[in-house]
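Lab meeting, action items carried over

1. Structure of the two-component assembly. Owner: GW. Status: complete.
Input record:
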Amino acid sequence: MSLKNINSNKSFEGWHKQYTHTSSVLNCEMRFAIYLPPQATIDTPVPVMYWLSGLTCSDENFMQKAGAQKLAAELGIAIVAPDTSPRGEEVADDENQAYDLGLGAGFYVNATQAPWKKHYQMYDYIVHELPALIEANFPVTKQRVISGHSMGGHGALTIGLRNPNLYQSISAFSPICNPTRCPWGEKAFSAYLGQNKEDWKAYDSYEILVQLSQHQPILIDQGSDDSFLKEQLKTESLLTLTSKNTAEITINIREGYDHSYYFISSFIESHLRFHAINLGLLEKH
Amino acid sequence: MSLKNINSNKSFEGWHKQYTHTSSVLNCEMRFAIYLPPQATIDTPVPVMYWLSGLTCSDENFMQKAGAQKLAAELGIAIVAPDTSPRGEEVADDENQAYDLGLGAGFYVNATQAPWKKHYQMYDYIVHELPALIEANFPVTKQRVISGHSMGGHGALTIGLRNPNLYQSISAFSPICNPTRCPWGEKAFSAYLGQNKEDWKAYDSYEILVQLSQHQPILIDQGSDDSFLKEQLKTESLLTLTSKNTAEITINIREGYDHSYYFISSFIESHLRFHAINLGLLEKH
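Predicted assembly:
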């Protein structure tokens, strides 16, 4: 699994870098970005926040627009931003090139249905192949936290909750909270996972949380003026849960904010601080 | 001059908004973006930083990528980001659609040559029409500062220096410092201003500074690994000047940084603080 460096930009005394590599899990060439804070050296490896982006995005949206690198450089946290689906001419796409199925819309699941299953194994890529690659090639520890936006917020919640030993804390912006009961999720899961809705539940954070008596700390920020809130995101499903659940989950409804990166950038530093506390880099106060 | 609001995003408790309007100076419809910090109300108007972007950019690059809004919200500074040229199907463009002439490459001059002069009057648009529109429609004072990147750094320096009563301070990232002696400037000025190189000097910050005994405070940041530094930007021309000039000009060469927005975002807060000091919002220390 060799990496090819295709771009490097110094940023806040650290480095933003883009790489391509051949993914054996996804059966295609993939690109990812990493932000290495100035503290990251072989002698002083740093923990990693994995960031999962939303529909239509690549590794670039978060790195260019979120404004996360300043505080990541101060705290000493690396950030890894993978792509949102397998890519390439040989990879199946929606026949109408819809934005919410196929390329750019992997939904962080392992597809079981043709023609998707050959490449759309994003769950295994994020949980296993990519971290192994990162930990073998960069000055990072095995301490991981996970965050994401929209479809990537769904990915962060489901992947984090299903792997409590691998991710010390979970956060999300505007996550799709209950994909088995919203149009985006129903469309994608029907295609990738088939018609048996029982098979969908392993990728639905509401359904996972219902079954759990405890889990890692979770932080969610959601804009009140997000045009996708009621039909697609269903944050209210988690709000009903938290009233019954004693585990640590904080959901902030942010008045007047929308679904954009202007919203993410406004609150990303609070998410980095939340993860830094759970990584033992900052004290809680 | 009526404004049409086409986009609004809450950001750091203030608002990022995009507008279109018919420009009588440019003879076309134009788009700009404004960031209004939470302090900006009719009773408490705030000063404005005008940001001029570089080749190929629009109003969006700075607003999405620079990470300026957090500190602008803290300091109470509005930011206005105009487009980089006139736009529209009726507007002349380079016959090969080159990135460095025509659309996206207005160079902040008043063109005197056909076919450019009908629309390419960016100097007057930035200095006169746009601020009048901003000051008539938003809760801002007449206090202005100006900044920009690359071609926009050239614009900020030349416009600021030629209008000392209108701009209290000037800053630039990676500016084209001596456009009369670099390929980008020679190509654009030949087209827009004609072959008489004497006519070019009014749009060359080095040539303007040579003639001035005093000027507003200037702050420039330049990456040492900027691939355009030697051939296009010619920062060394200003460095020779400052050794002879007692006026206030600071040029920071930033080791390892390139020409990208990763560089701008790394140092934008120091530029906002510099302008805040010159606007009397912060004390110098």
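2. GW to write a short summary for the group page. Key points so far: The beta strands of chain B are 3-11, 14-23, 28-36, 46-52, 78-82, 140-148, 170-173, 218-223, 249-254. Residues 193 and 269 of chain B are 35 Å apart (CA to CA).
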